[in-house]
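Dear colleague,

Thank you for sharing your sequence with our group. We've completed the structure prediction you requested, and as agreed, I am returning the results in plain text so they can be pasted directly into your records. Please verify that the sequence below matches your submission; if there's any discrepancy, let me know and we will rerun it promptly.
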Amino acid sequence: MSDRSKKRGGRRGRQDSENAAVPVIVPYITRKIPDYELLDDEALTMVEDNADTILEDVGIDFRYKPALKLFKDAGADIDGERVRFPRGMCRQIIQASAPSIFEQKARNPLRNVMIGGKNTVFAPVYGPPFVRDLDNGRRYAKIEDFRNFVKLTYMLPSLHHSGGTVCEPTDLPVNKRHFDMIYSHMKYSDKPFMGSVTQPERAQDTVDMCKILFGEEFVDQNTVVVNLINANSPMVFDETMLGASEVYARNNQASIVSPFILSGAMSPVTAVGTMAQILAEAMAGITFTQLVRPGSPVVFGTFASSISMQSGAPTFGTPEPSFVLNGCASLARRLGVPFRSGGSLCGSKISDAQAAYESANTILPSVTAGVNFVLHAAGWLEGGLSSGYEKLIMDADQLGMMQVFANGPDLSENGQALSAIREVGPGQHFLGCNHTQENFKSAFYRSNIADNNSFEQWEMDGAMDATMRANKIWKQMLNDYQTPELDPAIDEALLAFIKQRKDSFADSNI
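Please find the predicted C-alpha coordinates below.
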Protein backbone atom coordinates (compact mmCIF):
# COMPACT_ATOMS: atom_id res chain seq x y z
CA MET A 1 0.00 0.00 0.00
CA SER A 2 1.34 3.43 -0.96
CA ASP A 3 2.00 6.20 1.55
CA ARG A 4 -0.75 8.19 -0.13
CA SER A 5 -3.24 5.36 0.33
CA LYS A 6 -2.23 5.04 3.98
CA LYS A 7 -2.72 8.78 4.41
CA ARG A 8 -6.13 8.58 2.81
CA GLY A 9 -7.10 5.71 5.09
CA GLY A 10 -6.03 7.65 8.16
CA ARG A 11 -8.00 10.70 7.10
CA ARG A 12 -11.04 8.59 6.27
CA GLY A 13 -10.77 6.88 9.62
CA ARG A 14 -10.76 10.21 11.43
CA GLN A 15 -13.74 11.39 9.37
CA ASP A 16 -15.70 8.22 10.12
CA SER A 17 -14.92 8.59 13.82
CA GLU A 18 -16.13 12.20 13.85
CA ASN A 19 -19.23 11.43 11.78
CA ALA A 20 -20.11 8.59 14.14
CA ALA A 21 -20.38 11.00 17.07
CA VAL A 22 -23.94 11.20 18.40
CA PRO A 23 -25.36 14.65 17.55
CA VAL A 24 -27.09 16.76 20.16
CA ILE A 25 -30.83 16.45 19.50
CA VAL A 26 -32.64 19.79 19.69
CA PRO A 27 -36.44 19.29 19.58
CA TYR A 28 -36.97 22.78 18.10
CA ILE A 29 -35.11 26.05 17.65
CA THR A 30 -35.38 28.93 20.08
CA ARG A 31 -34.13 31.90 18.09
CA LYS A 32 -31.62 34.16 19.82
CA ILE A 33 -31.43 36.59 16.92
CA PRO A 34 -33.86 39.49 16.47
CA ASP A 35 -36.75 39.16 14.04
CA TYR A 36 -36.02 41.20 10.93
CA GLU A 37 -39.00 43.33 9.89
CA LEU A 38 -39.23 45.07 6.52
CA LEU A 39 -42.39 47.04 7.31
CA ASP A 40 -42.63 49.69 10.00
CA ASP A 41 -45.60 50.25 12.31
CA GLU A 42 -47.30 52.68 9.93
CA ALA A 43 -47.10 50.27 7.00
CA LEU A 44 -48.36 47.33 9.07
CA THR A 45 -51.29 49.38 10.38
CA MET A 46 -52.17 50.28 6.78
CA VAL A 47 -52.24 46.58 5.79
CA GLU A 48 -54.38 45.74 8.83
CA ASP A 49 -56.85 48.52 7.93
CA ASN A 50 -57.02 47.23 4.36
CA ALA A 51 -57.67 43.70 5.59
CA ASP A 52 -60.54 44.97 7.76
CA THR A 53 -61.94 46.74 4.71
CA ILE A 54 -61.85 43.48 2.75
CA LEU A 55 -63.62 41.65 5.58
CA GLU A 56 -66.23 44.38 6.00
CA ASP A 57 -66.94 45.42 2.41
CA VAL A 58 -65.98 42.51 0.17
CA GLY A 59 -66.43 39.59 2.55
CA ILE A 60 -65.33 35.95 2.52
CA ASP A 61 -67.34 33.04 1.08
CA PHE A 62 -67.84 30.15 3.52
CA ARG A 63 -69.31 27.15 1.72
CA TYR A 64 -70.28 25.35 4.90
CA LYS A 65 -73.61 25.85 6.68
CA PRO A 66 -72.36 25.27 10.25
CA ALA A 67 -69.82 28.08 9.73
CA LEU A 68 -72.52 30.46 8.49
CA LYS A 69 -74.59 29.82 11.62
CA LEU A 70 -71.63 30.40 13.93
CA PHE A 71 -70.74 33.65 12.20
CA LYS A 72 -74.34 34.88 12.22
CA ASP A 73 -74.67 34.17 15.95
CA ALA A 74 -71.40 36.07 16.53
CA GLY A 75 -72.70 39.19 14.76
CA ALA A 76 -71.46 38.88 11.16
CA ASP A 77 -73.61 39.81 8.17
CA ILE A 78 -74.62 36.76 6.10
CA ASP A 79 -75.67 37.02 2.45
CA GLY A 80 -75.96 33.51 1.04
CA GLU A 81 -72.45 32.08 1.45
CA ARG A 82 -70.86 35.53 1.71
CA VAL A 83 -69.85 36.57 5.23
CA ARG A 84 -69.07 40.20 5.98
CA PHE A 85 -67.48 40.98 9.31
CA PRO A 86 -67.98 44.23 11.26
CA ARG A 87 -64.70 46.10 11.45
CA GLY A 88 -62.46 44.65 14.15
CA MET A 89 -64.72 41.68 14.90
CA CYS A 90 -62.29 38.97 13.81
CA ARG A 91 -59.31 40.49 15.61
CA GLN A 92 -61.32 40.85 18.80
CA ILE A 93 -62.47 37.21 18.78
CA ILE A 94 -58.98 35.90 17.95
CA GLN A 95 -57.18 37.95 20.57
CA ALA A 96 -59.74 36.99 23.22
CA SER A 97 -59.05 33.26 23.00
CA ALA A 98 -56.45 32.01 20.47
CA PRO A 99 -53.18 31.04 22.19
CA SER A 100 -50.04 32.91 21.17
CA ILE A 101 -47.95 29.81 21.77
CA PHE A 102 -48.76 26.14 22.28
CA GLU A 103 -46.97 22.84 22.75
CA GLN A 104 -47.53 19.93 20.38
CA LYS A 105 -46.95 16.68 22.21
CA ALA A 106 -45.02 13.84 20.57
CA ARG A 107 -45.22 10.22 21.67
CA ASN A 108 -41.64 10.73 22.83
CA PRO A 109 -41.86 13.68 25.27
CA LEU A 110 -38.28 14.64 24.40
CA ARG A 111 -39.60 15.49 20.92
CA ASN A 112 -42.38 17.86 22.03
CA VAL A 113 -42.29 21.15 20.10
CA MET A 114 -43.29 24.67 21.13
CA ILE A 115 -45.03 26.50 18.29
CA GLY A 116 -45.05 30.30 18.57
CA GLY A 117 -43.00 32.97 20.30
CA LYS A 118 -39.28 32.87 19.50
CA ASN A 119 -39.44 29.24 18.43
CA THR A 120 -38.98 27.72 14.97
CA VAL A 121 -39.97 24.19 13.99
CA PHE A 122 -38.76 22.65 10.72
CA ALA A 123 -41.10 20.14 9.02
CA PRO A 124 -40.50 18.29 5.73
CA VAL A 125 -42.14 18.61 2.31
CA TYR A 126 -45.92 18.13 2.16
CA GLY A 127 -48.21 16.93 -0.62
CA PRO A 128 -46.28 15.81 -3.75
CA PRO A 129 -47.71 12.94 -5.82
CA PHE A 130 -44.26 12.14 -7.23
CA VAL A 131 -40.89 11.23 -5.75
CA ARG A 132 -37.45 11.49 -7.29
CA ASP A 133 -34.10 9.92 -6.59
CA LEU A 134 -30.86 9.70 -8.52
CA ASP A 135 -31.26 6.01 -9.35
CA ASN A 136 -34.90 5.80 -10.48
CA GLY A 137 -35.72 9.35 -11.53
CA ARG A 138 -39.24 10.76 -11.21
CA ARG A 139 -42.09 8.37 -10.50
CA TYR A 140 -45.43 8.20 -8.72
CA ALA A 141 -44.98 7.85 -4.98
CA LYS A 142 -45.90 4.63 -3.19
CA ILE A 143 -46.45 3.82 0.46
CA GLU A 144 -42.89 2.49 0.63
CA ASP A 145 -41.64 5.96 -0.34
CA PHE A 146 -43.89 7.51 2.29
CA ARG A 147 -42.42 5.25 4.96
CA ASN A 148 -38.90 5.98 3.73
CA PHE A 149 -39.42 9.74 4.04
CA VAL A 150 -40.86 9.33 7.54
CA LYS A 151 -37.86 7.22 8.55
CA LEU A 152 -35.35 9.65 7.06
CA THR A 153 -37.08 12.63 8.68
CA TYR A 154 -37.02 10.80 12.01
CA MET A 155 -33.26 10.30 11.68
CA LEU A 156 -32.44 13.87 10.62
CA PRO A 157 -31.84 15.98 13.75
CA SER A 158 -32.41 19.30 11.96
CA LEU A 159 -36.00 18.28 11.13
CA HIS A 160 -38.06 18.65 14.29
CA HIS A 161 -41.39 17.40 12.96
CA SER A 162 -42.46 14.31 11.03
CA GLY A 163 -44.78 16.42 8.85
CA GLY A 164 -47.89 15.15 7.14
CA THR A 165 -48.31 14.02 3.53
CA VAL A 166 -44.58 13.75 2.87
CA CYS A 167 -45.63 12.27 -0.48
CA GLU A 168 -48.93 10.92 -1.79
CA PRO A 169 -48.93 7.08 -1.82
CA THR A 170 -50.74 6.55 -5.12
CA ASP A 171 -50.65 2.75 -4.84
CA LEU A 172 -53.35 2.88 -2.13
CA PRO A 173 -57.05 3.80 -2.51
CA VAL A 174 -57.61 7.52 -2.07
CA ASN A 175 -60.30 7.06 0.57
CA LYS A 176 -58.19 4.70 2.69
CA ARG A 177 -54.58 5.80 2.30
CA HIS A 178 -54.84 8.26 5.18
CA PHE A 179 -54.88 5.35 7.63
CA ASP A 180 -51.54 4.07 6.34
CA MET A 181 -50.02 7.56 6.32
CA ILE A 182 -51.03 8.42 9.89
CA TYR A 183 -49.96 4.98 11.10
CA SER A 184 -46.55 5.42 9.42
CA HIS A 185 -45.96 8.64 11.37
CA MET A 186 -47.02 6.93 14.59
CA LYS A 187 -45.04 3.74 14.01
CA TYR A 188 -41.82 4.76 12.27
CA SER A 189 -41.14 8.02 14.10
CA ASP A 190 -41.64 9.43 17.58
CA LYS A 191 -41.62 13.05 16.44
CA PRO A 192 -44.85 15.10 16.30
CA PHE A 193 -46.89 14.82 13.09
CA MET A 194 -49.73 16.24 11.02
CA GLY A 195 -53.19 14.79 10.35
CA SER A 196 -55.45 14.17 7.36
CA VAL A 197 -57.62 17.00 6.04
CA THR A 198 -58.97 15.62 2.74
CA GLN A 199 -62.40 14.86 4.28
CA PRO A 200 -63.90 15.61 7.70
CA GLU A 201 -64.30 11.85 8.26
CA ARG A 202 -60.57 11.40 7.67
CA ALA A 203 -59.85 14.13 10.17
CA GLN A 204 -62.00 12.24 12.68
CA ASP A 205 -60.09 9.03 11.89
CA THR A 206 -56.87 10.90 12.69
CA VAL A 207 -58.26 12.08 16.02
CA ASP A 208 -59.51 8.59 16.87
CA MET A 209 -56.09 7.09 16.10
CA CYS A 210 -54.47 9.77 18.28
CA LYS A 211 -56.79 8.77 21.11
CA ILE A 212 -55.51 5.19 20.82
CA LEU A 213 -51.89 6.39 20.77
CA PHE A 214 -52.10 9.00 23.54
CA GLY A 215 -55.35 8.30 25.43
CA GLU A 216 -58.74 9.99 24.99
CA GLU A 217 -58.51 12.41 27.92
CA PHE A 218 -54.93 13.34 27.03
CA VAL A 219 -55.98 14.27 23.48
CA ASP A 220 -58.80 16.47 24.75
CA GLN A 221 -56.45 18.36 27.07
CA ASN A 222 -53.35 18.52 24.83
CA THR A 223 -52.41 19.26 21.25
CA VAL A 224 -51.06 16.08 19.65
CA VAL A 225 -51.64 16.77 15.95
CA VAL A 226 -51.29 19.83 13.69
CA ASN A 227 -53.23 20.13 10.45
CA LEU A 228 -53.02 22.20 7.27
CA ILE A 229 -56.27 23.99 6.40
CA ASN A 230 -55.94 25.88 3.11
CA ALA A 231 -58.20 28.70 2.04
CA ASN A 232 -59.42 28.33 -1.53
CA SER A 233 -58.05 31.74 -2.43
CA PRO A 234 -59.20 34.27 -3.38
CA MET A 235 -61.48 34.73 -0.38
CA VAL A 236 -63.22 31.32 -0.27
CA PHE A 237 -63.24 28.51 2.29
CA ASP A 238 -64.75 25.23 1.05
CA GLU A 239 -66.74 22.56 2.86
CA THR A 240 -63.91 20.01 2.93
CA MET A 241 -61.39 22.26 4.63
CA LEU A 242 -63.90 23.79 7.04
CA GLY A 243 -65.31 20.39 7.99
CA ALA A 244 -61.83 19.09 8.78
CA SER A 245 -60.95 22.25 10.69
CA GLU A 246 -64.13 21.93 12.73
CA VAL A 247 -63.26 18.35 13.71
CA TYR A 248 -59.80 19.35 14.85
CA ALA A 249 -60.85 22.51 16.68
CA ARG A 250 -63.66 20.67 18.47
CA ASN A 251 -61.07 18.13 19.68
CA ASN A 252 -58.58 20.83 20.78
CA GLN A 253 -56.17 20.07 17.93
CA ALA A 254 -54.31 22.70 15.94
CA SER A 255 -55.24 24.09 12.53
CA ILE A 256 -52.79 25.96 10.33
CA VAL A 257 -55.19 28.31 8.54
CA SER A 258 -53.21 28.99 5.41
CA PRO A 259 -54.28 30.99 2.33
CA PHE A 260 -52.68 29.40 -0.74
CA ILE A 261 -51.55 32.24 -2.96
CA LEU A 262 -50.08 32.43 -6.43
CA SER A 263 -49.70 36.20 -6.65
CA GLY A 264 -51.13 37.59 -9.85
CA ALA A 265 -53.62 34.74 -10.18
CA MET A 266 -55.09 34.27 -6.69
CA SER A 267 -54.20 37.66 -5.26
CA PRO A 268 -53.06 41.04 -6.60
CA VAL A 269 -49.63 41.20 -8.22
CA THR A 270 -48.38 43.56 -5.51
CA ALA A 271 -46.87 42.41 -2.22
CA VAL A 272 -48.85 44.80 -0.01
CA GLY A 273 -52.14 43.98 -1.71
CA THR A 274 -51.44 40.29 -1.29
CA MET A 275 -50.60 40.77 2.40
CA ALA A 276 -53.96 42.46 3.04
CA GLN A 277 -55.89 39.66 1.31
CA ILE A 278 -53.90 36.98 3.18
CA LEU A 279 -54.53 38.66 6.52
CA ALA A 280 -58.26 38.93 5.80
CA GLU A 281 -58.54 35.29 4.76
CA ALA A 282 -56.45 34.03 7.66
CA MET A 283 -58.34 36.04 10.28
CA ALA A 284 -61.69 34.81 8.94
CA GLY A 285 -60.56 31.18 9.07
CA ILE A 286 -58.97 31.53 12.50
CA THR A 287 -62.14 33.17 13.81
CA PHE A 288 -64.10 30.09 12.73
CA THR A 289 -61.86 27.82 14.83
CA GLN A 290 -62.33 30.04 17.89
CA LEU A 291 -66.11 30.02 17.47
CA VAL A 292 -66.03 26.20 17.30
CA ARG A 293 -63.94 25.94 20.47
CA PRO A 294 -62.50 29.06 22.09
CA GLY A 295 -58.85 28.57 22.97
CA SER A 296 -58.22 25.79 20.46
CA PRO A 297 -54.69 26.15 19.07
CA VAL A 298 -54.31 27.76 15.68
CA VAL A 299 -51.55 29.02 13.39
CA PHE A 300 -51.72 31.91 10.93
CA GLY A 301 -50.27 30.36 7.79
CA THR A 302 -49.56 31.37 4.26
CA PHE A 303 -48.08 29.89 1.16
CA ALA A 304 -47.35 32.68 -1.29
CA SER A 305 -45.36 32.49 -4.52
CA SER A 306 -45.05 34.68 -7.56
CA ILE A 307 -45.89 33.41 -11.04
CA SER A 308 -44.36 33.69 -14.46
CA MET A 309 -46.48 36.24 -16.27
CA GLN A 310 -45.54 34.47 -19.50
CA SER A 311 -46.50 30.88 -18.64
CA GLY A 312 -48.52 31.21 -15.43
CA ALA A 313 -46.23 28.72 -13.67
CA PRO A 314 -45.32 29.42 -10.01
CA THR A 315 -41.83 30.76 -9.41
CA PHE A 316 -39.75 30.50 -6.25
CA GLY A 317 -36.80 32.20 -4.64
CA THR A 318 -37.74 35.62 -6.02
CA PRO A 319 -37.82 38.76 -3.85
CA GLU A 320 -41.57 39.45 -3.89
CA PRO A 321 -42.71 36.32 -1.96
CA SER A 322 -40.07 37.14 0.65
CA PHE A 323 -41.69 40.56 1.09
CA VAL A 324 -45.04 38.83 1.67
CA LEU A 325 -43.54 36.24 4.04
CA ASN A 326 -41.78 38.89 6.09
CA GLY A 327 -44.76 41.21 6.28
CA CYS A 328 -47.18 38.43 7.24
CA ALA A 329 -44.80 37.26 9.99
CA SER A 330 -45.00 40.75 11.48
CA LEU A 331 -48.79 40.80 11.10
CA ALA A 332 -49.09 37.43 12.88
CA ARG A 333 -47.04 38.70 15.81
CA ARG A 334 -49.29 41.77 16.07
CA LEU A 335 -52.35 39.52 15.92
CA GLY A 336 -50.86 37.37 18.68
CA VAL A 337 -50.81 33.93 17.03
CA PRO A 338 -48.03 31.66 15.73
CA PHE A 339 -47.04 31.93 12.06
CA ARG A 340 -46.37 29.34 9.36
CA SER A 341 -44.69 30.01 6.02
CA GLY A 342 -41.45 29.57 4.09
CA GLY A 343 -39.49 26.41 3.44
CA SER A 344 -36.84 25.26 0.99
CA LEU A 345 -38.91 25.97 -2.11
CA CYS A 346 -37.83 25.69 -5.71
CA GLY A 347 -39.22 25.17 -9.19
CA SER A 348 -36.32 23.03 -10.35
CA LYS A 349 -37.04 19.46 -11.40
CA ILE A 350 -33.79 18.12 -9.95
CA SER A 351 -31.37 18.97 -7.14
CA ASP A 352 -29.30 21.38 -9.20
CA ALA A 353 -28.01 24.94 -8.84
CA GLN A 354 -31.47 26.38 -9.49
CA ALA A 355 -32.88 24.26 -6.66
CA ALA A 356 -30.08 25.34 -4.33
CA TYR A 357 -30.35 29.07 -5.05
CA GLU A 358 -34.14 29.19 -4.88
CA SER A 359 -34.27 27.11 -1.71
CA ALA A 360 -31.63 29.27 -0.03
CA ASN A 361 -33.59 32.38 -1.01
CA THR A 362 -36.64 30.97 0.79
CA ILE A 363 -35.24 29.31 3.91
CA LEU A 364 -33.03 32.19 5.05
CA PRO A 365 -35.89 34.75 4.93
CA SER A 366 -38.02 32.20 6.82
CA VAL A 367 -35.54 32.18 9.70
CA THR A 368 -34.78 35.89 9.77
CA ALA A 369 -38.49 36.80 9.62
CA GLY A 370 -39.20 34.64 12.67
CA VAL A 371 -41.45 31.97 11.13
CA ASN A 372 -42.63 29.57 13.83
CA PHE A 373 -43.62 26.54 11.76
CA VAL A 374 -41.70 26.01 8.52
CA LEU A 375 -43.48 23.49 6.32
CA HIS A 376 -41.65 22.22 3.19
CA ALA A 377 -38.35 22.85 4.98
CA ALA A 378 -36.72 19.87 3.23
CA GLY A 379 -37.34 17.69 0.20
CA TRP A 380 -39.37 20.03 -2.03
CA LEU A 381 -38.81 19.84 -5.80
CA GLU A 382 -40.65 20.83 -8.98
CA GLY A 383 -42.90 23.43 -7.39
CA GLY A 384 -44.16 20.89 -4.88
CA LEU A 385 -44.95 18.12 -7.37
CA SER A 386 -42.03 15.92 -6.29
CA SER A 387 -40.45 14.87 -3.01
CA GLY A 388 -36.73 14.44 -3.56
CA TYR A 389 -34.70 11.88 -1.64
CA GLU A 390 -31.41 13.66 -2.28
CA LYS A 391 -33.07 17.06 -1.88
CA LEU A 392 -34.30 16.04 1.58
CA ILE A 393 -30.74 15.30 2.68
CA MET A 394 -29.26 18.43 1.09
CA ASP A 395 -31.94 20.68 2.58
CA ALA A 396 -31.57 19.10 6.02
CA ASP A 397 -27.87 20.00 5.92
CA GLN A 398 -28.83 23.63 5.30
CA LEU A 399 -31.38 23.48 8.12
CA GLY A 400 -28.56 22.50 10.44
CA MET A 401 -26.77 25.67 9.38
CA MET A 402 -29.93 27.71 9.98
CA GLN A 403 -30.13 26.31 13.49
CA VAL A 404 -26.60 27.50 14.22
CA PHE A 405 -27.38 30.87 12.63
CA ALA A 406 -30.56 31.26 14.71
CA ASN A 407 -28.56 30.71 17.90
CA GLY A 408 -26.57 33.85 17.17
CA PRO A 409 -22.90 34.39 18.16
CA ASP A 410 -21.56 33.17 21.48
CA LEU A 411 -21.20 36.18 23.80
CA SER A 412 -19.90 34.24 26.79
CA GLU A 413 -16.37 34.51 28.17
CA ASN A 414 -15.45 31.54 26.00
CA GLY A 415 -16.99 33.23 22.97
CA GLN A 416 -15.04 36.42 23.59
CA ALA A 417 -11.82 34.33 23.43
CA LEU A 418 -9.57 36.89 25.14
CA SER A 419 -7.61 34.05 26.73
CA ALA A 420 -6.69 32.80 23.24
CA ILE A 421 -5.67 36.25 22.06
CA ARG A 422 -3.46 36.70 25.15
CA GLU A 423 -1.93 33.27 24.75
CA VAL A 424 -1.06 33.62 21.06
CA GLY A 425 -0.08 37.26 20.86
CA PRO A 426 1.13 39.08 17.73
CA GLY A 427 2.55 37.24 14.74
CA GLN A 428 1.62 33.66 15.77
CA HIS A 429 -1.25 31.32 14.83
CA PHE A 430 -4.18 30.01 16.84
CA LEU A 431 -4.20 26.39 15.65
CA GLY A 432 -2.36 24.99 18.63
CA CYS A 433 -3.54 27.23 21.45
CA ASN A 434 -5.56 25.84 24.34
CA HIS A 435 -8.77 27.66 23.36
CA THR A 436 -8.70 26.20 19.85
CA GLN A 437 -8.02 22.69 21.16
CA GLU A 438 -10.94 22.97 23.57
CA ASN A 439 -13.40 24.30 20.97
CA PHE A 440 -12.41 22.99 17.55
CA LYS A 441 -14.97 20.16 17.45
CA SER A 442 -17.91 22.50 17.88
CA ALA A 443 -16.52 25.82 16.65
CA PHE A 444 -17.82 25.59 13.08
CA TYR A 445 -20.74 23.85 11.44
CA ARG A 446 -19.51 20.84 9.50
CA SER A 447 -21.57 19.95 6.44
CA ASN A 448 -21.99 16.29 5.61
CA ILE A 449 -22.77 17.22 1.99
CA ALA A 450 -20.09 19.76 1.03
CA ASP A 451 -16.66 18.55 -0.12
CA ASN A 452 -13.80 20.77 1.05
CA ASN A 453 -10.90 18.47 0.26
CA SER A 454 -8.26 19.13 -2.39
CA PHE A 455 -9.08 18.50 -6.03
CA GLU A 456 -6.86 15.40 -5.99
CA GLN A 457 -8.59 13.99 -2.91
CA TRP A 458 -12.01 14.73 -4.43
CA GLU A 459 -11.04 12.81 -7.56
CA MET A 460 -9.74 9.86 -5.53
CA ASP A 461 -13.04 9.77 -3.62
CA GLY A 462 -15.01 9.36 -6.85
CA ALA A 463 -15.40 12.94 -8.14
CA MET A 464 -18.92 13.03 -6.72
CA ASP A 465 -21.14 16.09 -6.75
CA ALA A 466 -23.44 17.02 -3.86
CA THR A 467 -26.41 15.05 -5.21
CA MET A 468 -24.32 11.90 -5.52
CA ARG A 469 -23.06 12.31 -1.96
CA ALA A 470 -26.62 12.82 -0.72
CA ASN A 471 -27.69 9.67 -2.55
CA LYS A 472 -25.16 7.62 -0.60
CA ILE A 473 -26.20 9.23 2.67
CA TRP A 474 -29.95 8.50 2.46
CA LYS A 475 -29.33 4.91 1.43
CA GLN A 476 -27.00 4.38 4.38
CA MET A 477 -29.51 6.04 6.71
CA LEU A 478 -32.30 3.68 5.66
CA ASN A 479 -29.93 0.76 6.08
CA ASP A 480 -29.10 1.92 9.63
CA TYR A 481 -32.70 2.84 10.59
CA GLN A 482 -34.15 1.37 13.77
CA THR A 483 -37.85 1.71 14.59
CA PRO A 484 -38.45 3.69 17.79
CA GLU A 485 -40.09 1.56 20.45
CA LEU A 486 -43.90 1.56 20.46
CA ASP A 487 -46.02 -0.21 23.09
CA PRO A 488 -47.10 -3.48 21.40
CA ALA A 489 -50.62 -3.18 22.85
CA ILE A 490 -51.03 0.29 21.34
CA ASP A 491 -49.64 -0.91 18.02
CA GLU A 492 -52.09 -3.82 18.01
CA ALA A 493 -55.00 -1.50 18.85
CA LEU A 494 -54.06 0.88 16.03
CA LEU A 495 -53.88 -1.94 13.48
CA ALA A 496 -57.23 -3.34 14.69
CA PHE A 497 -58.87 0.08 14.36
CA ILE A 498 -57.46 0.54 10.87
CA LYS A 499 -58.69 -2.89 9.76
CA GLN A 500 -62.15 -2.34 11.19
CA ARG A 501 -62.49 1.05 9.52
CA LYS A 502 -61.12 -0.11 6.16
CA ASP A 503 -63.42 -3.13 6.14
CA SER A 504 -66.44 -0.89 6.77
CA PHE A 505 -66.40 0.77 3.33
CA ALA A 506 -65.31 -0.03 -0.22
CA ASP A 507 -62.17 1.19 -1.93
CA SER A 508 -62.52 4.42 -3.88
CA ASN A 509 -60.38 6.84 -5.86
CA ILE A 510 -62.26 9.83 -4.43
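Summary note from our side: Confidence is low (pLDDT under 50) at residues 1-22.

Kind regards,
the structure core
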